[in-house]
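TASK: fixed-backbone design
INPUT:
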């Protein structure tokens, strides 16, 4: 098994940026989900409610990012003293807030009032203790530092979709960080830990999937195959701790290091049983 894809998402819910090499910290990939849009009250905004976010590209740029959408661009500035308490699900983060000009430009682009915030060096967030056994540092991810998926599982999902008369979908629908080239479908359910590039990743929680997987990751439109319907055939969780359909695993790195495309992936621990799934009658 090898690494077939590495991706960062500098802006939460913005477009993925494919990488050939990434630095990995205990809080995940460098530059991954370190910026986020919120409403004026500080509540996080994603493609679930603002589909046009799929059209926004964000490229890291010396402590900030260059944001681009439909041929327009803006480079925000951040004053470390200009801060706000923002929420991501149930957690609160003391984040740096972008300059007013940038927030005005983004609000115009997206057709609603938004503000851009940054997980800078003064900000911190800990999540996942119930699953990882310890508090885990994260950026603006939904809950864990890294998401791992496999080519074999996507191929099996796409066979299901085609069998239902739908179009196959790309892995970009699942916003993964590490894509593993592996033919076996859903084998990752048995992986307790994997080693890549000298870093051991603990696979601590399966990832439940939402409506974002139904959206084209270039336009935000809900078009093409519907992964939720395909996953419902055999990937509906039977464990109420993680409800809904599942694809991929949330992972926690034990150490820092670097990953490269083509790195070998070695299973370092296996579970005795798979995650339970409901059987459709």
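OUTPUT:
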């Amino acid at each position: 098994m090898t690494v077939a894809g590495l991706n960062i998402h500098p802006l939460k819910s913005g477009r993925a940026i494919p990488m050939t090499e990434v630095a990995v910290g205990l809080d995940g990939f460098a530059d991954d989900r370190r910026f986020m849009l919120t409403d004026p009250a500080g509540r996080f905004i994603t493609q679930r409610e603002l589909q046009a976010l799929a059209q926004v590209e964000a490229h890291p740029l010396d402590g900030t990012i260059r944001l681009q959408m439909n041929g327009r661009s803006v480079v925000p500035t951040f004053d470390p003293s200009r801060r706000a308490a923002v929420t991501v699900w149930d957690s609160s983060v003391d984040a740096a807030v972008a300059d007013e000009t940038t927030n005005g430009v983004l609000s115009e682009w997206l057709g609603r009032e938004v503000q851009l915030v940054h997980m800078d060096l003064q900000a911190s967030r800990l999540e996942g203790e119930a699953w990882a056994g310890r508090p885990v540092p994260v950026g603006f991810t939904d809950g864990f530092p890294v998401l791992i998926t496999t080519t074999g599982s996507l191929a099996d999902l796409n066979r299901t979709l085609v069998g239902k008369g739908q179009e196959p979908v790309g892995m970009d629908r699942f916003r993964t960080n590490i894509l593993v080239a592996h033919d076996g479908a859903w084998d990752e359910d048995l992986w307790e830990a994997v080693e890549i590039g000298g870093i051991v990743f603990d696979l601590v929680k399966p990832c439940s999937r939402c409506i974002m997987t139904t959206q084209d990751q270039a336009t935000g439109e809900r078009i093409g195959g519907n992964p939720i319907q395909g996953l419902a055939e055999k990937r509906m969780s039977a464990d109420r701790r993680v409800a809904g359909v599942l694809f991929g695993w949330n992972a926690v790195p034990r150490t820092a290091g670097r990953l490269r495309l083509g790195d070998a992936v070695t299973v370092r621990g296996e579970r005795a049983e798979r995650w339970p799934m409901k059987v459709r009658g």
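COMMENT: The first strand starts at residue 2 and ends at 8.
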